[in-house]
Every structure is written in C-alpha cells, then in structure tokens.
Design brief:
The complex is a heterodimer of chains A (about 325) and B (about 475). Chain A has about 325 residues and is mainly alpha-helical. Chain A has one domain (about 85-320): Orthogonal Bundle (MetI-like fold). Chain A contains 15 helices and two strands. In chain A, strands 1-2 form a two-stranded antiparallel sheet. In chain A, strand 1 (about 60) and strand 2 form a beta hairpin. In chain A, helix 5 crosses helix 9 (about 180-210), helix 5 runs antiparallel to helix 12 (about 235-255) and helix 9 packs antiparallel against helix 12 (about 235-255). By secondary structure, chain B is of the alpha/beta class. Chain B contains 21 helices and eleven strands. In chain B, helix 11 (about 245-260) packs across helix 20. Classes of the chains: A mainly alpha (about 325), B alpha/beta (about 475). Chains A and B meet through loops of A and helix 3, helix 5, helix 6, helix 20 and helix 21 of B.
Chain lengths: ~325, ~475
C-alpha cells in the first residue's frame, strides 16, 4: 500500500494529472457538459424551426399522418390569393402596424423623462425605482384580467371619470367594448407594461454617462434642455434603439394581451397578426390551417428580421 | 395506454453495453475511452429505463381504460359512472378533463404524434369527431353499434358520427373526408341539446311588471319585454350574450330567428353559393333588420364577454335575459342561480314570419369515440355501450346536469330533475318549424362562422353598419368562403 501511495504522491508532486483524470479525456468531459444543451437545442430548436418552416409549405390539421404539399400557396393565400384570408390578414397587419409604432414611441416618450427625473433625485430613488418597476414584475395573464375588470363598463376607470365630473369621457360599453377605444386602450396597457424595463435601461445608461462631460457643458453655459438634447440623448441612442426594437418585437409576436382582453374584438377591431397566427393554429376547429398559420409565423419572422437589420444599421451609424 | 415499456425495450437492448459483442469490443480496445463511453451509455440506459417505467402502469389488458374529455363537469360525472361500471364489469375507467377546448385539441394533436392517445375520447359531435376520424385517430364503430343501440338514442342525434356520402361529396377536394368510406361510424352520440334558448330572470320580469311565468310568444313580444326590463333598470336589465365569441350572436339568435321568419328553404338560400337570395336580398335585409332591433337592449360590455362570463353576469343579476343552450342551465346552477328562478324559452319567431311557432331539434353536442391506438377495443366498446345506456347516461346526466343523447323516456324527470327535464319540451313542435342547428349541409366546406359573426357584431350591438349595408357585406364574406372552397 505504501509503495503505491508513494508512487502516486510522487506523480502528483511532479505535476502529473491523477490516474482517474488521465482516463477521462478532456474532449469527452467537454462533450458531456455540452451534449444535453446541444441535444435540447437540436430537438427543441433546430427540429422545430425546420419542421415549422416545412409546414408552411403544406396543409395539415395536426391529425392526419401525411401533409399535403402546396408549395408557396399558403404565403400567396395570406398575401392576396385567398379572398377569405387575405382581407383579414391586411386588417390585422394594419392593427399590428399601429401597435408597432405607438408602443415603442410612447414607451420612449414616457420612460426617458421618468429615468431623467429618477436620476436627478437622491432621496427615495430606490423606492421609486421599485414602484416604477412593479408593472414589469407583475405583468402577465393575471394582470391582463385585472385590467379587463378595471376597464369594464362598471369598472374603476369609468367610476373615477364619473366621480371626477368627467362622465362624458366614460365609456358606457367599457373601454374594450367600444371599437374607437379598444385598440388605443390595449396600446396603453402595453406601454404600461413596457415602461418599467425601458426606464431601468435608460437609468443605467444615464448613470454610465461621465458627469465631467455634463459639467463641462454646463460650465460652457449649456442649459439643462441643451445638455439633454446635445449630450444625453445622443449617448442614449443605442439604448433607445434597443427599447424600440423590444417594443417592435413585442408588437409583432405578442398576442396574449389581445387574446385575453378582447379576443380580437369587438367586431375584429383589435385583431393583430400574432393573434391571427394563434387562431389559425388552434381555434379553427380541425380545419387544415396549421400550414397557413406557420406561413404567417414566417412572414412575421421576416418582418422582425428586416427590422433588426434596420436597427443594426442604425446602431452602426450612431457608433 | 400501457405500451410504454414494450416500445422502449428494443431501444434499450440495442444500446445496452452488457451484450457479449459489446463486451469483447470493449476488451479489444482496452482503452479508457470505451469504458467511459460504457458508463455514459449505462447512465443513459438507466435514464431511459426510468422514463419508460414511468410512462405506463402495469399492463392490465382489457381491464383498465383511460378517457379524455374537454368538459370538467363531464369528467366528474363520468368518473362517478365509472365506479358503477367497474362494479358491473370489473373494468376500470379513468377519465381526465383537459380544458379549455383549444388545449384539448392541441393535446390530441401532440398525443397523436407521440402515440400517447387514451382509449376513449369525448369529442364535439358532428364535426370534430368526423375530422379526427377521417384523420385516422379513431376507429370505425359501425359493426359494434347495432339497431338496438341506435334506438336508445334521440332520433336527430343518431347519425351525428356517421360519415355519409353527402358529407364526403360536400367536403373540399383536399379534405381527409375524401378518403373515408361512406357508412363509417366514428363516434356514438353522448350528450345532446339545442342552442338558442333564452333564460329570463323571473325576479327582473316581475320587477318590470311582466308575467314571470309566461314566455314571450313572438320576437316583438320579446323586444317589448326587453324594453320594459331595460326601462326599469338600464344598467342591469338588458340581454347578455358572450359576444367576445362573435359567432354566438349568429348561431344562437340570428339563425333561429331567420329560420322561423323565412322557413327552411329561404333561410338556407341566404348562405347559398351565388347568393341570389342571399343576405343582400330583401329576405336577408329584413331578417338582419329584425336582429338589429336588439341594439338598445344589450347588456353594457357584451362584446367583451366570453360565453361563460356572460352566463355568470346573468347569474349575478347583471342582465335580465341571457341566451345560451340547454347546457346553460347547469352552468347557471353551478354559479348560484337556482333553476326555479329562471324562465326558459326558445328564440321566439317574429309575428310577421313564415312560422308562428319554433322548436329546437336536439343535436348531438358531444360524442364518444374509441381511439385507433387502443389495445382495449372490446373493453372500450363495452364502456361506450354502458355509458350510453339509460342507466349509464342517467348517472352521468344526474351528476353533470347535461342532457344525454340517450332517450331516457319516462325516467327523464326522475333522473334529470324537473327543471332540466322541462328543457326537453323545447325539442318538440311542428316538423316544418323545427330549427336544426346540426344541419350544416348548406354551408361552404371551410365555413368559418367567426367572419359573419364579426359582421353581425358590427350590426348590433356596435351599430357600425345598418342592415342594408350588412347584407351585401355578408354576401361578400360568404362568396369569399365559397371561392376558397376548393
């Protein structure tokens, strides 16, 4: 025993790896760690993406063993060929575009001043930051239901408006029941849930700005407004681009809020592309619409990709 | 259902390092790499074995069944009935509810891909069952369901799961229906009922000075009653309906109303290809106008309510009238509204219409099917037979408060209770004025009722279009759907 132990000890002293470690080559250890993640990605990522893309060229109801290949017909049907699908697609695209523009713009307009204000105070900054961040933490299905109750005909918003003598602004059918207010109301809720993260991003951006730069500008006689416009805003542009991109992405892909709060109604006035994809996939009974739903998903992907490229180009220009 | 271990065993054998071939190869290489690989494979085998072991219960061929339904109330009632079935046959049935409907459908889709279907499915009758059957997921029961079995069922429900030549002919060219043989029976009707049943709060009727025991005879009387209740209580005296699901207005109110006003043939002509007598015709516009007269009487926010939410609003006293189906009574009772506090009647016919009476032909609402992957076919068919017998159906009906497709005859009142049994009176009436909601033969094969439903919502309650504007728009929508039907 003592001989073996001594040999091992001397080996270790010479800096040789222990016997066990020699038997486990590094490549295998590496693979053992990486393999689960790679396998998961191959199955859940590559396979589903590939399968989904192939499905966009087929008709299938999810049950039959075979797909019916239709080439690019699903795409053409959505864009113009199917007189039943195409008008709905166009209407949903128009609603999506409104959300896609309004949500990022309003988010920036609200969150930037909020972040500047938060950055300029010393007292209660962390408390206020937590308060403003609350909608992001609590956001989700439960919150959308809560919003529905608040926006009902006899909900809190109407009650407050009437109590404040602003009864003419109250909505007798509820804010989600009136076609004129339904989509704007959903946009407000979306902005409400996206402002916290945007504020936090801006706040971190503001705190990263070198105070000497601002101080130098102030010594040179720049007013607060000019400091904001000429120094802070350009330096925060990359963050703005990220916030805009996040908003656009949410507008393109998000459908939960529309599904829960209006279901695309009233009368189709809040139908968006994300919701239409979901409906074509799961709410068309057993019609063979999984392929066309997949095609719509890929059109959305193409849209998102395009916007990402534009965004990347903008960022490069800023740099 | 218990095949998990059987399916896994060959896979395990093929990767197991324990075989002599593997062992000799291991010795030949003699290196650490092969040994390490052996350890990895052994671990993987263990994981696979554990996974497979957990997937299935110990095989009990023919003695245990699994069943999925999309209705929680049915699952509870069916599990109670399963207890009696086990006592009678020794076969265990475990029923699981998967809700809501879209989750149920996607669960079947994924189970069909992974071979994880149960033995029996409860499906929407007259559509979903046929689609799933034509896709090869459920078995043909034509040889099992004999005349005696069929005679137990309400006549208008008997053929709900039958693939007829007419259904095959009407299907689109790329529909799976085209590959099915006429005469194939994919399901057995389980529950039945009718849409277009109005529920009125007796309390609110009395408060408005109306007779709480006499239903309105005509559409005009109904509108007058609505006028009285909304005048008494503008906020809580209206009509509730889950218009977030926009087709409810079309299916449950407009269609029965138009059917009684025009008669069967002129009603079906509204939806016909070419639409010469379509919604834009005087017939169509007149019926749309009748329907549009509801505009002042909707409960505030009806367009934002789902079906269940509208029923709950009625049960909470937020409306005086509510439209649903025969199945709504059970839901109202579950939500605290005693059946003796409501007056029920079918959508009344217009006094100016072709028919002065209306009855709702019961249609099969749900049906039972045996999956094609079951290894317990005989037991599954036995379960279907028992649960659609007067005894089994009675147990389920009593516990779910849902009307069965089985004719309970004289036992109906004792099994269902007086209130639920009373709903059955709306099923009877002159044949010519009976509205058959289950007849879909005059629609395009890819008929999507959400599209006309949305337009009707814009007619009423939104008031964005008038009847003369809505008619041609509806014709356009129907025309597009006919055109899409390939």
């Amino acid at each position: 025993m003592s001989t073996l132990t001594a040999a091992k000890r001397s080996g270790r002293l010479r800096g040789e790896p222990p016997e066990r470690a020699r038997r486990l080559p590094e490549w295998l250890v590496g693979w053992a760690f990486v393999l689960p993640a790679v396998a998961l990605f191959l199955v859940m990522g590559v396979y589903t993406i590939g399968s989904g893309f192939a499905l966009s060229f087929a008709k299938w109801n999810g049950f039959t063993p075979e797909w019916t290949w239709v080439g690019i017909q699903n795409y053409l049907d959505l864009l113009y060929a199917d007189p039943s699908l195409a008008p709905e697609f166009r209407a949903a695209a128009w609603h999506t575009a409104q959300v896609m523009i309004a949500v990022p713009v309003l988010t920036v307009v609200i969150s930037l001043p909020l972040a500047v204000a938060l950055n300029s105070i010393r007292r209660l900054r962390s408390v206020l930051r937590s308060v403003y961040f609350l909608p992001y933490v609590t956001s989700g299905i439960a919150v959308y239901y809560a919003w529905r109750y608040v926006l009902e005909p006899d909900g809190a918003v109407n009650l407050l408006l009437r109590a404040a003598g602003l009864g003419s602004l109250a909505q007798p059918q509820g804010f989600l029941g009136n076609p004129a207010t339904a989509l704007p109301t959903l946009i407000v809720v979306l902005v409400w849930s996206s402002v916290p993260i945007a504020t936090l991003l801006y706040l971190s951006g503001l705190q990263a700005i070198d105070p000497n730069m601002i101080e130098a500008a102030q010594i040179d006689g720049a007013a607060q407004r000019q400091v904001l416009r000429r120094i802070v805003w350009p330096l925060l542009r990359p963050i703005t681009a990220a916030i805009v991109l996040l908003g656009v992405r949410d507008a393109l892909h998000g459908f939960q809020i529309f599904l829960i709060m209006t279901g695309g109604g009233p009368g189709g006035h809040t139908d968006v592309l994300g919701l239409q994809t979901y409906r074509l996939s799961f709410m068309k009974g057993l019609a063979q619409t999984l392929g066309v739903a997949s095609a719509l998903g890929w059109l959305l992907f193409a849209g998102a990709l395009l916007l990402t490229l534009v965004n990347a180009r903008m960022l490069r220009r800023v740099k | 259902m218990t095949t998990g271990a059987k399916q896994c065993s060959p896979v395990m054998a093929s990767i197991s390092p324990g075989g002599s071939g593997a062992r000799s190869a291991y010795r030949r290489r003699g290196g650490g790499r092969a040994r390490t690989l052996g350890v990895v494979i052994a671990v993987l085998s263990g994981v696979l074995a554990a996974g497979c072991g957990g997937a299935g219960e110990p095989a009990a061929e023919g003695r245990a069944l699994t069943m999925w339904t999309f209705k929680k109330s049915h699952a509870d009632a069916l599990n109670k009935a399963a207890g009696q079935f086990k006592a009678a046959t020794g076969i265990t049935v475990t029923v699981e509810a998967i809700t809501p409907d879209d989750v149920f459908v996607s669960k079947i889709q994924s189970a069909a891909q992974t071979g994880g279907l149960p033995d029996v499915l409860e499906l929407h009758a007259g559509g979903e069952d046929l689609e799933i059957g034509a896709s090869g997921l459920v078995q043909d029961l034509a040889a099992d369901v004999g005349e005696e079995w069929k005679r137990r069922l309400l006549p208008t429900t008997r053929d709900a799961g039958l693939m007829t030549q007419q259904r095959i002919d009407l299907a689109a060219n790329d529909s799976p229906f085209k590959s099915v043989k006429a005469g194939t029976l994919f399901s057995v009707p389980f529950t039945a009922g009718a849409f277009g049943i109005v529920y009125a709060s007796k309390e609110k009727l009395r408060a408005a000075g109306l007779d709480a025991d006499t239903p309105p005879k005509t559409w005009e009387d109904f509108l007058a009653a609505l006028k009285a209740t909304t005048a008494k209580d503008p906020a809580r005296g209206g009509l509730s309906l889950g218009l977030k699901v926009s087709q409810t207005g079309l299916n449950w109110i407009y269609q029965p109303l138009a059917h009684s006003y025009l008669g069967r043939d002129r009603f079906q002509a509204l939806f016909a290809k070419g639409a010469q007598q379509g919604f834009g015709s005087p017939d169509g516009i007149r019926t749309l106008d009748l329907y549009g007269r509801l505009t002042p009487y909707w409960m505030p926010g009806s367009t934002t309510l789902g079906i269940d939410e509208a029923d709950i609003a009625f049960a909470q006293g937020k409306s005086a009238f509510n439209v649903g189906g025969t199945f709504t009574l059970a839901f109202l009772a579950q939500n605290g509204m005693s059946p003796d506090k409501v007056l029920t009647f079918p959508i009344p016919p217009s006094s100016e219409g072709a028919h002065k009476e209306i009855s709702m032909s019961p249609l099969a609402l749900t049906s039972l099917a045996v999956t094609s992957t079951t290894e317990n076919r005989a037991a599954a068919v036995k379960w279907l037979d028992w649960v659609t017998s007067p005894t089994g159906a009675g147990v389920v009906a009593k516990n779910s408060l849902d009307l069965p497709a089985t004719d309970l005859g004289g036992e109906a009142e004792s099994l269902l209770g007086p209130d639920l049994a009373a709903l059955q009176k709306h099923f009877t009436g002159p044949a010519e004025s009976a509205y058959e909601a289950g007849d879909t033969t005059f629609f395009p094969s890819d008929y999507d009722q959400v599209k006309p439903g949305n337009l009707l919502t814009r007619l009423t309650p939104l008031g964005e279009v008038t009847a003369p504007q809505a008619g041609p728009e509806l014709d356009k929508i129907m025309g597009a759907m006919w055109k899409s039907t390939k």
